[in-house]
Amino acid sequence: MKKFACTAIIIFSLISLAGTALAWHDKTHLAVAKVAKYRMWYNAAGPDIAKIKAGDVEGYNHWYNNNWKSEVIPQTVTSQINRYNKANVLLDIDGHLYGAIIASLREYEASLASGKYGEYHLVYCAHYIGDLSMPLHNVPYDDYNKNHHSVNDGIVDQEVLEHPEKIERHMYRITLRDNSFENDLIREIVRIANISRLLGYKMQAENRNMTPEEAYIQLGHSASLLKAVLQHYKKL
Predict the structure, then answer these.
(1) Of 2.60.40, 3.30.300, 1.10.260, 1.10.575, which CATH number belongs to 2-232?
(2) H or E element at residue 6
(3) What is the Cα–Cα distance from 78 to 204, expressed in whole angstroms?
(4) Which runs of consecutive H residues, i.e. helices, occur in 85-158?
(5) Within the chain, which residues score under 70 in pLDDT?
(6) Three-state SS at 9
(7) Structure confidence at residue 7 (pLDDT)
(8) Residue 184's pLDDT is what?
């Protein structure tokens, strides 16, 4: 009985650390996909809608609560790939955003190879790439994160679709080579994840929200990476 009680306490503690917040609000996700020239940009908020019915099975794909505040490395990404669309309370409680980007593209490619309509897998990937630049989806879901998350989700949401140039000015070229696409993509996920988590730590240390300019810089990272992915799949 004592052993069962200890196990229950551990599980409850893990659940309490899980992130349940959304990331960027809808218009922000749409804007990232639109400035990246994705022709189905209007679907980019769909994965957040899916969480209403899919719950944590989808939700854990949207963040990585880096509870050890460790540097993101390629192995961080690859270790998460087979956790895609899973919600095991012990194995997936930190989330697996980075692996979800790779896994969604693998499913996209598998659908195409089998003659199926695979576009929705690419829509999911576009959303996850948007989440990648949200600082509070790359750091522990602690009290600071909970108290500041919603404000930061919507920091530019009211204006971003009307001012795409504010993202575009922060975009840059990312090269994903055809002969090493997945490895190059993992490299870029690692780079942007570390930029995002460091900004998250800075915000926490200063007990503040992102500035709009910081948000647009972050969104520029996501839009640049999404554009590179679309170029690889000849979607531009």
Answers:
(1) 1.10.575
(2) helix 2-17
(3) 28
(4) 97-113, 119-132, 143-153
(5) 1-21
(6) helix
(7) 44
(8) 99
Residue listed under structure tokens 């963040």:
63
Please tell me the predicted confidence (pLDDT) of residue 89.
Answer: 85
Tell me the C-alpha distance between 85 and 41, whole Å. Answer: 22
**pLDDT attached to residue 10:** 39
User: Phi and psi at residue 234, in whole multiples of 5°?
Assistant: 60, 40
Tell whether the torsion through CA atoms of 103, 104, 106 and 110 is positive or negative: positive
pTM over 0.85? The answer is yes
Distance between CA atoms of residues 85 and 151, nearest Å: 27
Q: What is the DSSP string of 167-196?
A: HHTT-------GGGHHHHHHHHHHHHHHHH
Q: Which two tokens stand for residue 191?
A: 């780079």
Q: Side chain identity at 46, as an amino acid letter?
A: G
CA 151, 155, 159: angle at the middle one, nearest 5? 140
Pair 215, 155: CB distance under 8 Å: yes
3-state secondary structure of 115: coil
Rg of the chain over CA atoms, in angstroms?
Answer: 17
Q: Measured on CA atoms in the order 30, 150, 187, 65, is the torsion positive or negative?
A: negative
CA–CA separation, 43 vs 30, rounded Å?
Answer: 7
Of 211, 132, 210, the residue nearest 174 (C-alpha): 132
Residues 6 or more apart in contact with residue 43 via CB below 8 angstroms: 33, 120, 123
DSSP state of 149: H
What is the SS3 assignment for 172? coil
